[in-house]
Structure formats: C-alpha cells, structure tokens
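Input record (one chain):
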Amino acid sequence: MTGEASAAYAARAQEYTDLFGSMASVHDDDRDLVARWAAGLTGRVLDAGCGPGQWTDFLARQGLDAEGVDLAEPFLERARAEYPGVPFRRAALDDLGVPDGSLGGLLAWYSVIHTPPQAVDGAAVDDVLAEFARALAPGGGLLVGYFRGPRVEPFDHKVATAWFWPPDELAARLDRAGFDVVETAERDDPGVRPHGAVCARRRVALTARAGSGRTGRGP
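The corresponding structure, as predicted from the sequence alone:
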C-alpha cells in the first residue's frame, strides 16, 4: 500500500468500518473460502493489512494463532478495542516485522489492491510478494483477495487508486516470488467489481529475488 492509501484509510477509518468492518458484511463464498484455507494451516498466521480486524478475529476463532498488522492507526485502535484477545500492531506489507520463515499462513484480503505494479510511493507488488515469501515457512499458505480485470490497470477506488489484476498475471508474479498456486476463485456480482482470490503455498526453494527480502524489522 502506498503512503497515500494509508493516509486515506486513516482519514476514513470510521466510514470504512461502518460499511465493511464486520463479518456480517462478508460474502458467504468469501467466508467459506477463508475458513477452508485456514483449516489447512499450522503455526502462526498473519492478517496483513487487517483493517478494523474482523478477519483476524475470524482466524483466531478458527483456533489459529492469529495476529493482525496494518499501517492505519485508527484501524488498529478499533481492532484492539473490539477484539481485545487478538494481537494487533503497526507494520507495512513490505516489512512485516517477523523472522524469516516464521509464519504458517498469511492472509492478504484486498490488502494489496493499492500496491502498484511498479514502485511509485514505496513498494511495488513484487516487493510485497517477496516479503510474504520471506516471512512464510516452506509449505506455508498464502491467500490473496483482489479485484479481477482483463489487464493490469488502475481505477478510481473510493479511498485511493487501486489496480485490477488478471488472474494469470497475478499467478505469474506469485510464481516468481516463490509460490505455487493451488486454488483460484472468481465471482461476478451485479453492481460490484469482479472479485478474484488465489491460494498459494510457499515453495521450499525461493527465487533469488524472494530470498533477498528484508530482515523482518518493523517500521
């Protein structure tokens, strides 16, 4: 996520939370997909770009050792108040603040949509995926939710500029970062942008790019 997007979410945190900050606002298909993905995980799980924390709490309720990270302090304040038994802290998508290979799973549910394909203000998508690969243990699971489109292109999201991704292009980026795609999902609902999701597993041997990520220092 760019600095612009982080500031924009902080400014509109209450509005966003009112609209989307509970599991009641989640599509049944999304809830089922995340639950199935979570059932196959072991070890610590990170909700990267957790927003107001509803998905982090959902993962914790599945019996997982879940933690949420985000850059927008208003989201973190709300998450800590609403889910006091779940840990939340400030961290960027390209610097998660965890040791190498320490995660069993990582959820990035619509948290990379504002990360550009090339670096503009901070990290690009490839930098973020490399950080995800660094943080995950071999065989660890990654689930990414995103807006699906026929080409990589920006659009005017209500909060900040976001990007559409074709499934094949996102899968290719994941492959280069050191992931094997194991499942994809698509949904087209009236009146909303096309949805996409991809489940992947971190390979035992990372690419040189993925293996040369950050050391896990927090912001």
